[in-house]
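Milestone 3.1: sequence recovery, worked example.
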């Protein structure tokens, strides 16, 4: 019989990596709350039309058929979410958040799904930390989400960080630029890979982000979108840069930065880091002022970013960063079976109720103390509490430090205070 394995592009997060996950999500949550973002959780499954309208059928997710979609018995199509933003905007509209004090600042952490080629730090199911500000056009809101992203990586110990920024314009000036880009590429179609020929027809801006061979040279003299911005977009980009300069944040104008989804307008950005291999970008986002209207709501400006948890952890490892050791006290309760086992079980739950991390040495039959001490070493506990017949009789435990300190006998009713002291 064939052995069942996990599907391609999925992963098991094993306990050794759990400490990274716990640390990253804890720091991300604390940072979001410090910035005034409130947590929201939206469904993993949405109607496919949400993403067709919001992300655009010319986006890479649609062009490259990356979505996991099924047809319901009633003929409607539902999709495992390929990104957070469209679902959060849908929730904003459906739950009447437009009547709340504006802007509304939301964050979420959870899985997203894309049927794409698996690569380092990127899986077909991967988790994302996502922050959004809705109901505000001020470039300071763009800077707010950018700094939330940047400072998360700084808190985690990343080095060599900088912003890559660009403007993708708006419905007024973006078409003008796309015509200029098409004119530049006219007659050069034979130099384009098949995927870029398709992009040229459906979403010309995505050609700028092409990783295909020869594209760096081909696009070296391509027109820049910031030279084609309307007055409103130009002023917005100038204000954005002024605020970044005020905060003394390092940034580079990247004329080929466009992102892969149709809903972006004006600001797009990525955070780049040094020393993490070939993929310098660790997260990205931007402004999406037309998304709410695209999915059937009133006009609501928005800006946000998404950061993949797996990608964060990969970078942490590549930069040699270690999560902080857990601060909590940990002990193992050892026993010799019989009545000492009953006492050990009761003591284990007493210590846990007092907030002390406690392991119980399981043993259906009598188990050697040597074996239980090996278990204690394996799990790096600080103390072993040994309970034998004399300890049961005298209502005490033998406390053995695992750092080589002096073993002592402690009364049970004094144990919690002794361990915390």
């Amino acid at each position: 019989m064939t052995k069942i394995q996990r599907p391609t592009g999925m992963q098991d997060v094993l306990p050794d990596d759990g400490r990274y996950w716990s640390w990253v999500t804890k720091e991300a949550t604390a940072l979001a709350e410090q910035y005034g973002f409130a947590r929201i959780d939206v469904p993993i499954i949405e109607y496919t039309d949400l993403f067709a309208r919001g992300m655009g059928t010319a986006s890479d997710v649609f062009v490259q058929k990356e979505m996991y979609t099924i047809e319901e018995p009633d003929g409607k199509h539902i999709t495992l979410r390929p990104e957070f933003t469209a679902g959060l905007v849908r929730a904003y509209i459906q739950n009447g958040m437009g009547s709340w004090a504006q802007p509304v600042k939301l964050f979420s952490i959870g899985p997203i799904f894309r049927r794409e080629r698996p690569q380092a730090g990127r899986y077909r199911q991967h988790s994302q930390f996502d922050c959004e500000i809705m109901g505000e056009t001020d470039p300071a809101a763009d800077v707010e989400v950018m700094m939330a992203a940047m400072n998360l990586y700084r808190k985690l110990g990343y080095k060599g960080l900088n912003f890559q920024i660009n403007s993708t314009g708006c419905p007024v000036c973006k078409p003008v630029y796309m015509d200029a880009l098409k004119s530049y590429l006219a007659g050069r179609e034979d130099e384009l890979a098949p995927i870029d020929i398709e992009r040229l027809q459906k979403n010309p801006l995505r050609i700028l982000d092409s990783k295909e061979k020869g594209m760096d040279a081909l696009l070296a003299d391509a027109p820049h979108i910031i030279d084609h911005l309307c007055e409103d977009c130009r002023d917005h980009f100038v204000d954005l840069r002024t605020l970044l300069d005020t905060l003394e944040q390092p940034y580079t104008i990247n004329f080929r930065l466009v992102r892969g989804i149709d809903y972006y307008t004006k600001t797009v950005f990525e955070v780049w880091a040094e020393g993490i291999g070939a993929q310098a970008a660790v997260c990205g986002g931007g402004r999406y002022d037309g998304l709410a209207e695209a999915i059937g709501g009133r006009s609501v400006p928005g800006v946000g970013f998404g950061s993949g948890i797996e990608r964060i952890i990969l970078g942490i490892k590549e930069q040699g960063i270690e999560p902080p050791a857990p601060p909590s006290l940990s002990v193992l309760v050892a026993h010799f079976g019989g009545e000492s086992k009953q006492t050990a079980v009761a003591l284990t739950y007493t210590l846990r109720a007092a907030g002390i991390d406690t392991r119980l040495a399981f043993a259906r039959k009598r188990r050697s103390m040597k074996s239980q001490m090996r278990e204690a070493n394996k799990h790096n506990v600080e103390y072993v509490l040994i309970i034998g017949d004399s300890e049961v009789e005298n209502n005490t435990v033998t406390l053995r430090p695992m750092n080589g300190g002096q073993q002592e006998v402690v009364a049970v009713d004094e144990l919690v205070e002794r361990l915390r002291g």
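The longest strand covers residues 104-113. The radius of gyration is 28 Å.
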